[in-house]
Amino acid sequence: MKSQSIAVLLNGNNHLGFNYVELSSSIVNSGLPPNIKDGMIENIKEFLSPQSKAWYKFRGIPYRRGYLLYGPPGTGKS
């Protein structure tokens, strides 16, 4: 199975840079249906793009994203 990573833009007090984060095996083996998992990963990548950040900034919307995972205990939500 090919490893997947996403680029995370870090905006610190005096620096700006990218950090590439490997998607953990918990996402790969989360038990989510493939279409849901792939859609979620694509949504994260799109949100982290420079165009997305500019879109939020232009409209004065806070640049934040959250995901709510629900289900019975022990099903890999965390």
UniProtKB/TrEMBL annotation:
Q: Which domain of life is it from?
A: Eukaryota
Q: List the signal peptide residues.
A: none
Q: Which PANTHER family match?
A: BCS1 AAA-TYPE ATPASE
**Designated name of the protein:** ATPase AAA-type core domain-containing protein
